[in-house]
Amino acid sequence: MKTETPLPSMPADSDFDLRVRAEMALAFEPSDPPPHLLRKSSPWLARRGVQRVVAGLVLAATGSGTVLAMRPPSLVRDAIEHESHERTLRGNAMDPQQMLARLGLGQTKVVPGFPQLMRVCDIEGHVAYHLTTYFEKGGMVTVFAFDQPVALKEDGGWWNGVHWRVIRSREGKPLLLVSSKQKGLSVAQFSLQGTAPPAPG
User: Bridge-partner residues for 162, per DSSP?
Assistant: First the structure.
């Protein structure tokens, strides 16, 4: 025979319980649940974490695009690297008149500045005439003149710790100038072209 265990009796409601129950009854109607319980989950792209990741990717793509846009042509990059390897090299490995002819200064008798290095080099398969010279008001400047036609438009910028500029010789051939000082490029350009460069900006 089964013996029924008596259910424990519930304690009587205190005044606090009665007040809370009365307040809750007034807060919401029994048929209307709170609106936040029925709210739909936000779309995937509206989530804060996803928005931050997307914003980070956009910034990274913009930054790398800007760097690539500022990148000089490969021939300029190779010439700058070549110049950094031969920066401390000194000597005269060619006739100064031959160098002057390549620079478009065939009528001149003296190489511009105080020549530190004159030699023929190979840069990216192009024969280049390498002149490193010192200008008193501009510092050390390296000039590359190319024998074969090269696709370099007049441009300039900063790359790998040096300033560079492509100008045209008096004969219309491209000359690449490389210097650690921006002023050095202007002084060299004036010396090679005989005209002052346009004012920046």
Answer: 159
Using CA atoms, how far residue 108 sits from 98, 125, 170, 171, 197, in Å, is 11, 29, 12, 14, 21
Q: Cα(165)–Cα(139) distance, rounded to whole angstroms?
A: 15
What letters, b where the CB count within 10 A reaches 16 and e where it falls short, cover 59-92?
A: eeeeeeeeeeeeebbebbebbbebbeeeeeeeee
Distance separating alpha carbons of residues 155 and 176, to the nearest angstrom: 10
Sequence-ordered strand ranges (E) for the chain: 91-92, 114-123, 126-135, 139-146, 155-159, 162-168, 174-179
What is the distance between the alpha carbons of residues 57 and 63, in angstroms, rounded to a whole number? 10
How does pLDDT run across 64-94, given as a tens digit for each residue?
Answer: 666 555 678 888 999 999 999 998 899 988 9
* Residues 134, 113: Cα–Cα separation, whole Å: 5
99 neighbors 118 (Cβ within 8 angstroms): yes
Q: Are 134 and 116 in contact (CB under 8 A)?
A: yes
- Which pTM was predicted? 0.63
